[in-house]
């Protein structure tokens, strides 16, 4: 849903003396550069924070500077045993410290973000994500589902050389790989800049993509145009961004699966009715297993360490770690898709022609249950507690509770509408339904509605939708910007540093509950100052986040720019959220770089203010926004700065 090299100022990682686990060789340097004042001990946990620049090919610059990308890293230890605490989900925000809020406690500050996200939105939210859609035309939409003008916001649209058929995200979510069969290439997209960095050409059409678990090779399924040549697959070295090997496996469409340690790849060859077993270390075919029907999908169970291949005659091939075929599982119905739950126990095989899901118990290697779902199901995805099955013959999305399967009770199927119309069969291989980072919600692409729907578990219908601005979203993906556990007890995220100033870095842990606010100083960017004398900076001079309804509110903006103190084209866009009301005002120059426009809010609610100035090359989307809430005068908590 951004970073460079400077000396950590007020926020630095404090390392306890003698600590020696995964990064023991790095601790001396970290101790030297990070004073021990930024560790806090609460609720039996020791929490240390570092903000460090990320190298991007530039010379080191001392300190944290605005506009630069930086890495935030939290190290959480159990104070009783000095062991790393794993499996946490830290929520983190950066917001400028306001002298008017000196009495605001850290807990109240964080609760304001949680309870009133629009009215008290921080400068940097490290708990956000982006929704991407693979469109019917040769493009990808990048949507911010939260921080828009009263709803979802189109960040950018990435052009491709031909329509995409499949895509996959790198392990660190920094690179997006997109297969475009008509132009016979795989596009590589940088998700920090949303720019295409390379196009990898192939002799045949790439249709299916898969990344092996360790991320070292991207596997590309190739299909010959004449459907006679044995195009096979290609293994792309993701570090070098070039093909490492081409392997002839067989004709037809290819599906991929891998064992957990990335030593073995499995490739189906639909027209040859085979499954090829590949030794990844040697990048060579080990053996081919013959099937009585075309293999439609592959899935590897991490629990049983077994590969399952769903075929079009209703049989599930069972292939062990040595590549030996065992006793197959019979369903009696043609199969379309196959996936396993995150724990590797429950396999869901879909019959699109019979509207059924066959649930496999990998611990016993048998068919456990069969359930009816919506018309023409084609895809499965999982959250922590549910399996989701999308239908193409109607708008229904079916849910199956995973906990019920473990209790050996009949699976209850619930449903919700994934749109207003049946999405229909797109013919694409990429997912049209995926979980969100919260792991208790999904987003569903519905090309018939030209929308992506957001559904939270426990609701009868989607909570809302993200417009795709006139294009048909054929597939959907989520790029997570929240902190990730990069090592035991170490949680890391990246962010573009906001404008210079003193900031509160607020962190919330949920189990146990810990609130804490660190402090950080961000300096002006010397490179910008060098290049332009002084960068353009925008400052809103509104002293309160709550203003009275029905009274004129002077909104002042200060522009810090050496070249021009006064311009006549500074425009304010005021948007009321939620709703469609908006107003554009031309700001009056006051001198000294200050401008003013007056607004009289007629209704209570949250308002967002954006500015633009063609002469200063400022656009609404590039600059920070001001957010305030209009309330009844009796409950207004502060006076507007006159």
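Q: What amino acid sequence fits the structure above?
A:
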């Amino acid at each position: 849903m951004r970073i460079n090299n400077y000396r950590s100022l007020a926020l630095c990682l404090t390392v306890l003396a003698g600590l020696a686990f995964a990064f023991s060789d790095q601790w001396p340097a970290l101790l030297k550069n990070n004073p021990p004042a930024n560790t806090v001990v609460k609720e039996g946990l020791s929490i240390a924070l570092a903000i460090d620049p990320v190298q991007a090919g530039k010379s080191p610059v001392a300190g944290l500077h605005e506009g630069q990308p930086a890495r935030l890293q939290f190290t959480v230890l159990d104070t009783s045993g000095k062991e790393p605490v794993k499996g946490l989900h830290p929520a983190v925000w950066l917001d400028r410290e306001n002298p008017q809020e000196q009495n605001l406690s850290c807990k109240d500050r964080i609760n304001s973000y949680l309870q009133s996200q629009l009215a008290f939105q921080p400068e940097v939210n490290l708990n956000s994500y982006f929704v991407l859609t693979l469109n019917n035309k040769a493009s990808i939409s990048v949507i911010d589902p939260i921080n828009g003008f009263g709803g979802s916001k189109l960040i950018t649209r990435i052009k491709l050389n031909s329509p995409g058929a499949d895509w996959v995200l790198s392990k660190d979510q920094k690179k997006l790989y997109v297969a475009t069969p008509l132009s016979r290439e795989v596009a590589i997209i940088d998700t920090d800049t949303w720019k295409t960095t390379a196009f990898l050409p192939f002799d045949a059409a790439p249709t299916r993509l898969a990344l092996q678990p360790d991320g070292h090779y991207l596997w590309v399924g190739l299909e010959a145009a004449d459907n006679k040549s044995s195009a096979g697959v290609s293994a792309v070295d993701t570090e070098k961004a070039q093909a490492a090997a081409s392997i002839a496996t067989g004709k037809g469409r290819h599906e991929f699966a891998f064992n957990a340690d990335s030593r073995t790849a499995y490739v189906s060859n639909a027209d040859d009715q085979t499954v090829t077993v590949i030794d990844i270390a040697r990048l060579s075919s080990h053996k081919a297993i013959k099937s009585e029907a075309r293999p439609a999908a592959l899935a590897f169970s991490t629990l049983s360490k077994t590969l399952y291949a769903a075929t079009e005659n209703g049989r599930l091939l069972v292939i062990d770690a040595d590549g030996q075929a065992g006793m197959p599982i019979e369903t009696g119905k043609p199969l379309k898709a196959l996936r396993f739950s995150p724990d590797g126990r429950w396999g869901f095989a879909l019959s699109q022609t019979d509207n059924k899901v066959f649930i496999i118990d990998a611990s016993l290697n048998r068919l456990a249950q069969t359930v009816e779902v919506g018309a023409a199901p084609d895809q499965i995805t999982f959250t922590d507690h549910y399996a989701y099955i999308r239908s193409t013959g109607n708008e229904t999305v079916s849910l199956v509770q995973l906990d019920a399967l473990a209790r050996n009770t009949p699976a209850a199927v619930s449903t919700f509408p994934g749109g207003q119309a049946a999405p229909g069969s797109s013919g694409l291989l990429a997912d049209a339904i995926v979980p969100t980072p919260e792991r208790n919600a999904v987003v569903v692409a519905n090309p018939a509605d030209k929308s992506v729907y957001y559904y939270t578990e426990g609701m009868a219908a989607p909570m809302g939708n993200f417009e795709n601005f006139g294009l048909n979203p054929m597939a959907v993906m989520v790029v997570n910007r929240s902190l990730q556990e990069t090592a035991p007890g170490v949680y890391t995220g990246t962010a573009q540093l906001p404008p210079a100033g003193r900031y509160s870095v607020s962190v919330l842990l949920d189990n146990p509950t810990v609130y804490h606010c660190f402090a950080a100083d961000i300096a002006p960017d010397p490179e910008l100052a060098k290049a332009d004398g002084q960068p353009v900076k925008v400052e809103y001079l509104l002293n309160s986040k709550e203003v009275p309804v029905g009274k004129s509110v002077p909104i002042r903006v200060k522009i810090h720019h050496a070249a021009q103190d006064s311009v006549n084209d500074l425009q304010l866009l005021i948007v009321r959220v939620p709703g469609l009301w908006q107003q554009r005002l031309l700001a009056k120059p006051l001198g000294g770089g200050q401008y003013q426009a007056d607004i009289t809010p007629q209704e209570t609610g949250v308002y967002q203010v954006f500015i633009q100035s063609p002469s200063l090359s400022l656009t609404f989307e590039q600059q920070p926004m001001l957010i305030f809430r209009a309330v009844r005068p009796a409950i207004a908590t502060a006076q507007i700065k006159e």
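Q: And what stands out in the fold?
A: Residues 1-36, 635-642 have pLDDT under 50 and may be disordered.
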